[in-house]
Specification:
The structure holds two protein chains of two kinds. By secondary structure, chain A is mostly beta strands. Chain A has strands at about 5, 10-15, 20-25, 30-35, 45-50, 65-70, 75-80, 90-95, 105, 110-114. Chain A is built from no helices and ten strands. In chain A, strands 2, 4, 5, 8, 9 and 10 form a six-stranded mixed beta sheet that branches. Chain B is mostly beta strands. In chain B, the strands form two sheets. In chain B, strands 2, 4, 5, 9, 10 and 11 form a six-stranded mixed beta sheet that branches. A five-stranded antiparallel beta sheet of chain B has the order 1-3-8-7-6, with no helix packed on it. The N and C termini of chain B lie far apart (about 40 Å). Classes of the chains: A mainly beta, B mainly beta. The interface of A and B includes residues 33, 41, 102 and 108 of A.
């Protein structure tokens, strides 16, 4: 595609439910990044992928969060047993390679946990 | 979590005036310093990626400087226009490839 796409654009869920957020990076980009912005907060790095591998998962907020990437393309961020503090905008970005600095961001998924 | 600070948090500028704001970041394990522009309801847009001490980058009326030894970068907007209204984010990239963002400087340009 022409740019990074994310789905859904908005997700409202009830506390305790699981959610999956999807990111489609720019075709050919091997590096993919997940961030989130909670209300009133700055952008928080969550995890990055180089190909299908995530070398460092320490940025994930809790063990309820997991992410995977398959085929070096699409990535899903899964949040289990959602809590109200998980409400945020989740942004995905991709870059041509991990050492290429410029990252291209998707439009984000706004998650609201009631 | 690395300490990346931006100041001021917000500023209001009259159309035609010039302005600048600051990003401070750790001076160790430096890989790159990013500037992004983020308009409401849009994705962050990359403005500059700066890697070398003393780097100066320019894009139209917007420019940036970098001092890696003392850990700061300035973003300048010359002759501000209403379309420059946005939140400007800086992000420090350490040599483990992680990005740590500042909270942003929100610029509002008054016509």
């Amino acid at each position: 595609g022409a740019g990074v796409s994310q789905s859904p654009s908005n997700k409202v869920t009830e506390k305790g439910k699981d959610v999956e957020l999807r990111c489609d990076p720019i075709s050919g980009h091997t590096a993919l990044y997940w961030y989130r912005q909670s209300l009133g907060q700055g952008l928080e790095f969550l995890i990055y992928f180089q190909g299908n591998s995530a070398p460092d998962k320490s940025g994930l907020p809790s063990d309820r969060f997991s992410a995977e990437r398959t085929g070096g393309s699409v990535s899903t961020l899964t949040i289990q047993r959602t809590q109200q503090e998980d409400s945020a905008v989740y942004l995905c970005a991709s870059s041509q390679a991990i050492h290429y600095n410029e990252q291209f961001f998707g439009p984000g998924t706004r998650l609201t946990v009631l | 979590i690395l300490n990346v600070e931006q100041s001021p948090q917000s500023l209001h500028v009259q159309e035609g005036d010039s302005t600048n704001f600051t990003c401070s970041f750790p001076s160790s394990n430096f890989y790159a310093l990013h500037w992004y522009r983020w308009e409401t309801a849009k994705s962050p847009e990359a403005l500059f990626v700066m890697t070398l001490n003393g780097d100066e980058k320019k894009k139209g009326r917007i420019s940036a400087t970098l001092n890696t030894k003392e850990g700061y970068s300035y973003l300048y907007i010359k002759g501000s226009q209403p379309e420059d209204s946005a939140t400007y984010l800086c992000a420090f990239r350490s040599n483990d490839y992680k990005l740590s963002f500042g909270a942003g400087t929100t610029v509002t340009v008054r016509a």
